[in-house]
Amino acid sequence: MTAPVDAGEVRRLTRELLASHPPATTDRTGFLKARFDAGLAWVHYPAGLGGLDAPRTLQQIVDTELADAGAPDNDPRRIGIGLGMAAPTILRYGTDEQKRRFLRPLWVGEEVWCQLFSEPGAGSDLAALGTRAVRDAGGEWVVDGQKVWTSSAHVARWAILIARTDPDLPKHRGISYFICDMADPGVEVRPLRQITGEAEFNEVFLTGVRIPDSRRLGPVGDGWKVAQTTLMNERVSIGGARIPREGGMIGTAARTWRGRPELRTHDLHQRLLTLWVEAEVARLSGERLRQQLMAGQPGPEGSAMKLAFARLNQQISGLEVELLGDEGLLYSDWTMSRPELVDFTGRDAGYRYLRSKGNSIEGGTTEVLLNIVAERVLGLPSEPRNDKDIAWKDLSR
Amino acid sequence: MTELTAQPGQDEPAPMPDLLYSEAEEDLRAAVRALLADRADAPGVIARVESGTPYDPRLWKALAADIGAAGLLVPEKLGGQGATYREAAVVLEELGRSVAPVPYLTSSVVATETLLALAARDGAVVELLGELAAGRRTAALAVPFSAPAADEAQPASAVTGRLEGTITGVADAATADVLLVPTTDGLYAVETAADGVTVEPLVALDLTRPLATVVLHGAAGVLIADASSAVPAVRRGLLVGAGLLASEQLGIAEWCLTETVRYTRERRQFNRPVGSFQALKHRMAQLWLEIVSARAAARHAAGRLAADGPEALLAVAVAQAYCSGVAVHAAEECVQLHGGIGMTWEHPAHLYLKRAKADSIAYGTAGRHREVIAELVDLPAP
Ligand SMILES: Cc1cc2nc3c(=O)[nH]c(=O)nc-3n(C[C@H](O)[C@H](O)[C@H](O)COP(=O)(O)OP(=O)(O)OC[C@H]3O[C@@H](n4cnc5c(N)ncnc54)[C@H](O)[C@@H]3O)c2cc1C
Fold first, then answer.
1. Ligand 1: distance of its center to the CA of A367 in Å?
2. Residue of A282, A377, A383 lying closest to B293 (CB–CB)
3. What pLDDT digit, counting tens, does each position of B80-134 carry?
4. pLDDT tens by residue, B288-300
5. Which family does it belong to (chain A) (predicted)?
6. Which atom of ligand 1 is nearest to the CA of A124?
7. How many alpha carbons lie under 13 Å from residue A78 in its C-beta half-sphere?
8. Is the ipTM of this complex over 0.90?
């Protein structure tokens, strides 16, 4: 048996990587591939899959050493869905072959992922989805249906997809989980222009899309359980990084306040201070969550963070627009564009105000997350349901 | 836009304190909780406050001396436990959860910290500290309970060899053995039993923390610090009081939410538990979020108090600006979601509402603490 990987070993491997691939002279992708192969991508992943089977807490050492050395990172924002949702699901439910095929290009950023979950008729009630996957004689799955609000579908190479494989079962039981090839000719991506003027998400039409059975994740009919892993990771993916004081949107608002004394009013001052306190407290809660994770005691506080930041972002950006007065009446540019990622701080206050409205909808609405907190954390009774034991096909839609 | 003048935007100079609870702290919590469950359950507290003498000397002895809570902040060589603010904060969480009427915050935290800040090595101060740490006597700082540390510690009475003056709204003065009286001359220790000292109990909003007016009329005292060391010492006592009060507020909020969840799970209307109605579930989930945040803010303040600098000032101001509102909100929701029973004298919810509301004024209101923040992080008023 080999000794478990400890901090010293992680540090040694990191320095070895830096020595063999000096960031100054290595190209970005080359460096990231070498980092993956050295097991320093996500140290808690298995050896051979970008990790070292080491405690998750040791990742910090890698990240700090590499940042200090000016090494390129894999731009987690650009590959957020792959990193935060597809990867943990593949790791847990994927076959060895799937893991080997998908994890490396995902982490390196060569392949971007998107999430084909929501449908026009199934949002919060995701398990009501109607996209069909039917197995043909050759064992391949043929998928037909429509997905919506699909972020990054226009740049994605792969998608995680849930589809109905048995409409005769109650809705949670007839779903299966697939990896969908976005280059398949049956996949059509149409930009969906949003509140900010740009098209960050899409409608995705699936027409006779053929998916080999080797790209199914988990057993047939067990897709809802697999999707739980994805959704849990979606909500928890926040909280890893340390945020400095005034690190989020409050920093922009505070800088405007400091730099533009002519805009100040007493009413805005009171509101700014209240939000400043709330942002600082949210940051401290994030820090406490991080300390809990490091101590190996993950708690339900992750969903608290998502809820808190959604509200804060909306209130702070709203205040900022007001503070700017005449300038707040203007908007940078309504031209339709197709961004690769959401950039909150590089844009103007009007954009922040509008885009942050999505923070309480994407990844589960605030209302749905509050239900989850109430039932799973506080143990309050669920509301009476009338959809549990009825076949999906007999539900009213 | 100009560049920042303060340090916000970067991480604090000192490392982030541990915001979790240690095993030793959990042990201390368990001991305090067990004691309070035994000696200060809700019906007992209600019966006591009605008797006019809420203070229970047996409970105090068990908490202060047997568990050793009174001496947590006092170094071992002065007769205390030599623990940190974090342990004292855990005691306050439990005291908030039970609204037990004990002079812990006023004597073991504020008065004790004021004396400690004098950094005396021997004499009357050290002797008194030993007595307070052992729980044999209690002391109260003779300033109004509402006084924030950020105010210049205003001498409440003048001196001409003997003390003269009236100080209103002093918390726990009626049960204190000794009053620490700030004057223009410096800080005096005055025995409450001495000639010329009258402590007149007031009818307080919070039944569980008695207030009194202290009238000094030619009272004799011992000068324990001159004005130049008294002012920062009093300020330090009040700062630590405000910082650890956040933990009491956290405890209040936690009790209120726990009880409300318990009650609404059982209480049935419209043929289902009222706790299954989403309008109520969301309100309770919202309180949970606030409590998660309040815990981080309160732990942070307790962790930062160990250092005396701008980081401690800011951490305390943030904790107070946040936690007092959470405690009041939780207590108000507790009354509302209990319906009629929440309005009764018999149900303990009112004790928590009264304590929470009084605490929101104690050691400075949230608004006052926000003013402090505005100064510390350079967000000036128009
Ligand atoms: C910017 C953005 C990006 C997104 N990206 C993706 C993506 O990449 N992939 C993907 O699959 N999806 C994506 N989504 C979809 C997102 O997950 C859904 O919009 C969300 O789950 C809500 O579903 P819905 O839009 O159908 O609203 P609905 O479910 O119809 O909700 C309407 C309203 O009813 C409320 N509501 C619904 N059910 C309940 C309930 N039980 N109790 C109380 N209130 C309730 C909701 O909170 C909301 O206010 C994205 C959404 C946004 C805004």
1. 10
2. A282
3. 999 999 999 999 999 999 999 999 999 999 999 999 999 999 999 999 999 999 9
4. 999 999 999 999 9
5. Belongs to the acyl-CoA dehydrogenase family.
6. 29
7. 15
8. yes
